[in-house]
Write a structure and sequence with these properties.
10 helices, Arc Repressor Mutant, subunit A, Beta Polymerase, domain 2, 50% helix, elongated, two-stranded parallel sheet, alpha+beta
Length: 226
């Protein structure tokens, strides 16, 4: 979930400078007027209008213990500058990711790619009322297929990562798409929608083989330390 900032000043401050200040305040966990003035390198009087606007827009909350940055301050520290993403284009990007996952999963088990078992969307895309988005948040879940293990030595020799190779095939190119793991997305405890799931006999067989191998390994350890 990326905050989109317009080109030019925002809250009275040059965008890149404000983004850097947001990252610093989020890292400090403090957002007093003094803190903002220091990270911007200006006087208290010059920083006050910006500080007040950040409070109004929810980047800073006033608590009994004092002002502190909200989760939006972290978003400010990772903000992107540019034009918004039209919803229709976002729909096309989702369709491209799903089509790419289907194409990879249709390859033989010995292919040097991971199976893509789930794709989900989250963030601003879920709000159907928004016709322009800052970006497209996608989450994915992958599982190793036999071909990945078979190409492990090649990956070491040529510094090729099977997951990154699969990611390059699935994630649409461009500045708008952010692809994260399903595990990381679930840790955010945010709403999401699964747009693709994959099951196959080959996948079930690979899971069973991995489970059997792990049990055999665990049994060997038990014998060793018995």
């Amino acid at each position: 979930m990326t905050l989109l900032l317009p080109y030019g000043p925002y809250a009275g401050v040059n965008g890149p400078l404000l983004r850097a200040a947001g990252a610093k305040l989020a890292d400090m966990g403090s957002a007093t007027l003094y803190d903002l003035a220091v990270v911007l390198g200006v006087s208290h009087a010059e920083a006050r209008p910006t500080w007040e606007q950040l409070v109004v827009e929810g980047f800073i909350e006033i608590t009994p213990e004092g002002p502190r940055p909200t989760h939006r301050m972290d978003e400010l520290g990772r903000a992107r500058f540019g034009k918004p993403l039209p919803r229709k284009k976002a729909d096309v990007l989702v369709d491209k990711a799903v089509a790419a996952a289907k194409a990879l999963n249709a390859l033989p088990p010995e292919a040097p790619f991971y199976w893509v078992t789930r794709l989900a969307v989250f963030g601003s895309y879920l709000d159907s009322q928004k016709l322009e988005l800052g970006d497209l948040d996608l989450a994915w879940e992958v599982e190793e297929r036999p071909g990945v293990r078979g190409h492990a030595m090649m990956a070491i020799m040529y510094n090729r990562d099977g997951v990154q190779t699969t990611r390059a095939q699935v994630c649409p190119k461009g500045p708008y798409v952010r692809l994260t793991s399903l595990h990381e997305m679930l840790a955010l405890k945010c709403p999401y929608q699964v747009v693709y799931t994959f099951h196959s006999e080959e996948l079930a067989k690979a899971r069973a083989e991995r489970s059997a191998a792990f049990e055999a390994y665990q049994g060997g350890l038990d014998e060793l330390f018995r």
